[in-house]
Amino acid sequence: MIELASNWKRTLTIRNPILLAAGGYTTDAAHIGALVTLPTTWRARAGAPMPRVVEIPGGVLVRTGAANPGLPRVVREHRRAWEQSPAPIIVAFAAQGARDWATMAAQLESVTGVGGIELHFNPALDAADALRAVRAATELPILAKLDLDNAYEIAAACVAAGANALVLGRAPRGMKIVEGKAWYGRLYAPSVKPLALRVVGEIRDLGLGIPLIGCGGIHSAEDAREFLAAGASAVEIDSAEWIEPGIAERVATEVDA
Amino acid sequence: MKSYSCRVVENRNLWVDTQLVAFDAPDLSRALHPGQFALARAAPTFDPYLRRVLWLYASDGERVAFVFSACDPLAARTRVGDSLDLLAPLGNAINLDANARRVLLIGEGTRIVQLIALAHDAVAQAREVVLASSPVVGGGGHGVGVSPSPVADGGGYGVGVFPTHLLAPEIEYRTDDALSAELLVWADAIIASGSAELYRALASAIRAARYRLESGFARVIVDLPMPCGTGACYACAVETTRGAQLACVDGPAFDLVKFETRSAR
Ligand code: FES
């Protein structure tokens, strides 16, 4: 068993270090440690204009603009499944809806099956301020998912402001020239792994005293073990699940063996 | 949705920039219906990274053929005898109303290939079928799917005439005005595949010819890159009058009435 909120009164205990974070709101995977949902906002968001997906060699840039159905609809539609979920649900909050985070956190406080929330930060947000506001609104464990770009700089402030675990990190932002114009999206690819691993190692060396969760480029049990060896207590698998449905469950089984 | 490992028995250019890939795969063939698609990957590589959207082209219970963009790296890399890893069936089959005796299928440019399976299915159900080719009016840019082709045939038509010997003789293939009042009034049901621009033009042409656009009369296929195909990534969310819907799970065909075309750009 792994405790992801060891510095907090409410626990978030997972039985396996593999978290599924490919989007979606439910899973029937029985071995994973937890399901991290699609980044969600309070109100439904239609998302970014097309194209939202641009492939590059060996990876993909994605810009969904946090398209999601909005938290009230999500809770309405998935409450029953969450109650029966074999793994705790960690509801991810999209950076685009940060001003509603406290409201959202309060709404989830009593939803059975929800074990925690994950806040997605970008460098434009004041992470400590936002964390304090959410901390005041909920007793649910809070995971802070940081941009790899500035995770090292703000990690200690996030812990001081109430984060129970740090997720390292969000997919790095990239750019491609599309039809003569700059197009920005987040990079999902096996090649993200060394970047995320470096950040996990550097932040582990800060000795912040809370669990670190690695995320980025994980496509196999071998990749997951590297993050665990670098100091992560758990890892999130994201885009690998898009191209290989069920991979998180397989990796969870292999890592357990 | 299941995962299939299937050996390629045919891989060739079908028409313009459309590639056809076929498999002897009875289970898969029986699982798929017109309108549905598969996501393919040449396992175990991560380049290209995403699975490719393969649209059902023909299926006879033994063999199944799909179409996709011939410009896709998968087209050149795949050899007869190779195995591809397929997730299928994905998306919802397009079921025609039992009362729809006259079916109008409108394809923009090479997107017409997405309607061929449906055309043959409709003929097998003893319906009258017109397959109408529309010139390319939209900008394309729909990623890894079968996109409108910019290839010109000199006649301003965009992609030329679909090889009619590939069509059942009962299918009437038209290359004049796909949105003509005569066709729109004739039809009991319309399925279209093309760009947002085509769908906007179709909606106004139907209103002009039939005075109103009724729910259930016309459906349009949304062809977008689909990273997961299972509703997880939300990259294929489109706006409809029923809120955001996912092309992979709720589509790929949407009622034209409910579909707000700005989403399909
Ligand atoms: S392709 Fe991922 S949600 Fe539709």
Beta-strand residue fraction of chain A: 15-25%
How far the N terminus sits from the C terminus of chain B, by CA atoms, comes to 27 Å
For the residues shown, what is the average pLDDT of chain B? 88
Question: Helix content range of the residues of chain B, please?
Answer: 10-25%
CATH superfamily of chain A: Aldolase class I
Major sheet summary line of chain B: 6 strands, antiparallel, barrel
**Topology order of chain A in helix (H) and strand (E) letters:** EEEEEEHEHEHEHEEEHEHEHH
Global Rg of chain A: 17 Å
Mean pLDDT of chain A, nearest integer? 95
**Integer count of domains of chain A:** 1
In N-to-C order, the SSE pattern of chain B is EEHEEEHEEHEEHEHEEEE
Our count of helices of chain A gives 8
Q: In terms of quaternary structure, what is this?
A: heterodimer
Query: Can you list the strand order of the major beta sheet of chain A?
Result: 3-4-7-8-9-10-13-14
Q: Count every beta strand of chain B, where a strand is a DSSP E run of 2 or more residues.
A: 14
Structural class of chain B, by secondary structure, is: alpha/beta
Describe this structure in words.
The complex is a heterodimer of chains A (257) and B (265). With 257 residues, chain A is of the alpha/beta class. The two termini of chain A are 14 Å apart. Helix content of chain A is 30%, strand content 25%. The model of chain A has no long low-confidence stretch (mean pLDDT 95). Chain B has 265 residues and is an alpha/beta fold. In chain B, the strands form three sheets. Chain B has a six-stranded antiparallel beta barrel with strand order 1-2-5-4-3-6. In chain B, strand 10 (189-193), helix 5 (196-210) and strand 11 (218-221) form a beta-alpha-beta unit. Classes of the chains: A alpha/beta (257), B alpha/beta (265). The A-B interface holds A 22-24, 38, 44-47, 49-55, 57-60, 62, 64, 67-69, 73, 179, 188-190, 219, 239, 241-245 and B 1, 3, 41, 46-51, 87, 141-144, 224-225, 227-228, 230-237, 239, 243-244, 263-265. FE2/S2 (inorganic) cluster binds at residues 226-229, 231-236, 246-248 of chain B.
